[in-house]
Amino acid sequence: MKLKVLWVGKTQQAWVRDGVEEYSSRIRRYSPFEILEAREEKGAGDETMRERECDRLTKLLPKNGRLVLLDEKGISMNSPEFAGFLGKCRDAAVPELVFAIGGAYGFSQAFRSRADTVIALSPMTFTHQMVRVFLLEQIYRGFTILNREPYHH
Prior knowledge:
five-stranded parallel beta sheet; globular; alpha/beta; Alpha/beta knot; 5 strands
């Protein structure tokens, strides 16, 4: 199973870039992995920005992928449950599992309707920059749980 993470905008803070690089290299030990960035929209109304950013995200979607949106209103999972989700996708021979992180104003309704699953990392609200590192760490943690490695403890 290939993994792909899509997000809106460039990674701005150095600590976020460092975290993305660290966890990306760890994830690649378990699965082919790619990050794709969609250009951030500026200077428009909230809904227009959402729509334009999500149009760009849509162009990055593989045809045979399963789309998972990250949204604070999604279903909550603890780390073992998330690992189980990754394992089920792997065991079901999902060719590409695609996680999407929206921009500052989230996802358009049209893009939401494409999602196979919507998950929340927390009921708290985080910046879309911080979520990048949190998601990658949880993907890595999920693989270590599936492989019964000691990182989770």
